[in-house]
Amino acid sequence: SREWHLLSRPVGWPKSEDFALVEAEIRQPAAGEVLVRNKFLSVDPYMRGRMSAAKSYVAPFELGKAMQGGAVGEVVASAADGIAVGDHVLHFGGWREYATFDAKQAVKVDPDAAPLSTYLGVLGMTGLTAYAGLLRTASFKEGDSVFVSGAAGAVGSQVGQIAKLKGASRVIGSAGSDDKVKLLVEEYGFDAAFNYKNGSVAEQLREAAPDGVDVYFDNVGGDHLEAAIGQLNRDGRIAVCGAISVYNNTEAAPGPKNLARLIQTRGRIEGFLVGDHYDLQPQFVQEVGPWVASGALKYRETVVEGIENNLEAFLGVLRGDNTGKMIVKL
Ligand code: NDP
């Protein structure tokens, strides 16, 4: 069984020398454990944070050990009650072909109810992030105009569509290619979208949202956040979900220069972590599951095949190679 180890902590953009794909023995399950053959692995932007030693909300990856991440696989040996060989489970032993772990960390998933990869994306962690961040943190309500960055990504594409389905007056998205912008408007029903690489974010947002924005869902930070504050309406809300534009910075990025606008608008900026919102999971599945099944909410996945390409898939997320959730298929 092969697994990816972190050898050294990347400075700036991660380099292939910081990692190694290592051969490891498959360990049979002890009492209470299961052995799982992974079928789909998740690669997510937050993993960049775990490669650094800096204190954060999850512990850094340990050097010389297998990295971790979301994964869905099939149970091939079980010494745990309630989980049988042949069951499919969502768990945290990603970045490897086989994983042996405490069955309490496994959540059973149904391969007949939805494609297995969707438990990592549209019906999984990134989906709940979109749902909780928009509805709870940003207190979205019908009639709001919503701007979301990273809008063709896993979280962003779902934020925009949920806002639309729940009666947003206008949904605006930004993304890093003209093809992604086209997808947002033509397939996902965004009212306007722009390519942030084509010019000033502030100017393009002003054009796309002439009447301002009530909610900004921030996946990106930097210029995007400053531009959104500049267009914020009275009582506007900004949910800070991520700041991918600064994850590989070696020095602190400058903060937005226009924070005083929050006084005028009585605006609110609030960060959130999906891990604090799992109480919404049943409601999320109940509401979003049928939209996904009926096609009312569309999703894309970018699928990279093979454990040997796990690292490239992760780097691809940071580069923007993905449209929708980036998935590694084994
Ligand atoms: P995505 O599927 O959105 O992939 C990341 C995307 O970021 C890329 O496809 C790329 O698209 C875009 N990107 C990369 N660099 C830049 C840049 N410099 N400026 C603008 N966009 C950039 O990932 P996720 O949906 O999984 O995550 C989206 C955000 O949400 C991330 O910031 C992540 O850290 C955060 N997150 C936060 C959670 C929380 O609990 N708070 C939970 C899950 C995710 P493009 O081509 O458009 O540039």
TrEMBL record:
Residue ranges occupied by any Enoyl reductase (ER) domain in the UniProt entry: 15-328
A Pfam family reported for this protein in Swiss-Prot or TrEMBL: ADH_zinc_N
Domain of life according to the entry: Bacteria
Keyword Oxidoreductase (UniProt): yes
Keyword Oxidoreductase in record: yes
Name listed for the protein in its UniProt record: NADP-dependent oxidoreductase
Species, as recorded: Streptomyces neyagawaensis
Key words of the record: Oxidoreductase
Record-linked SUPFAM superfamilies: GroES-like (SSF50129), NAD(P)-binding Rossmann-fold domains (SSF51735)
PANTHER family: PROSTAGLANDIN REDUCTASE, PROSTAGLANDIN REDUCTASE 1
